TrEMBL record:
It comes from Streptomyces olivochromogenes. The lineage of its organism: Bacteria, Bacillati, Actinomycetota, Actinomycetes, Kitasatosporales. This is Carbonic anhydrase. Binds 1 zinc ion per subunit. Belongs to the beta-class carbonic anhydrase family. GO terms for biological process: carbon utilization.
Length: 192
């Protein structure tokens, strides 16, 4: 913990770099990714403060939109799209994902009921192999499922219909740093 504290102390000694952030934010991208500590959106994208609006959930799960049942995830998506006016949403899954791996392997999660119930919102990949430690195919299919789910959010549907929003599916390899994007015309994840 001490190295983190030391960095935080020195980080605050450069106020001139951050003064303009007090005027507000205007990110162009909502970046939805996993809570995994190995996935660092600003490091992956090179974004500076104020450039990404982030939503991090276990397994980068986007829960179904249910009118009258607010969730933090729905509020974040709605705020990003309707208030901040983001023009892009990226759903970024990653290799070696513990959440997707647990789904693929059908792990017993009774000891962690909140995790079990959260992951129950995601579909268990039917064609994925539990033998692949990267769970690449399962994660990529999971990313596509979350993009489809996002389309069910009224704010996203409206913005897509008006042509002011684009959705992207990314797959990040934690062991190489490579990023791949889903290409609809080939239905494959290819290097950016």
């Amino acid at each position: 913990m001490q190295p983190l504290i030391d960095h935080a102390r020195s980080f605050g000694r450069r106020p001139e770099e951050f003064a303009s952030l007090a005027d507000g934010q205007s990110p162009q991208v909502l970046f939805i990714t996993c809570s995994d500590s190995r996935v660092v959106p600003a490091l992956i994208t090179g974004a500076r403060p104020g450039e990404l609006f982030e939503l991090r959930t276990a397994g980068n799960i986007v829960p179904p939109y249910v009118p009258g049942r607010p969730t933090s995830e729905a509020a974040t998506v709605e705020y990003a799209v309707d208030v901040l006016g983001v023009s892009e949403i990226v759903v970024c899954g990653h290799s070696h994902c513990g959440a997707v791996g647990a789904l693929v392997r059908g792990e017993d999660l009774t000891a962690v009921p909140a995790v079990r119930d959260w992951l129950a919102q995601a579909q268990r990949p039917s064609d994925a192999s539990g033998d692949d430690p990267t769970v690449a195919d399962a994660v990529q299919n999971h990313v596509l499922a979350q993009l489809l789910r996002l389309r069910g959010y009224p704010c996203v549907e409206r913005a897509l219909t008006r042509g002011r929003l684009r959705l992207h599916g990314w797959y990040y390899e934690v062991h190489t740093g490579a990023v791949r994007e889903h290409r609809a015309h080939t239905d494959t994840f290819e290097a950016l």
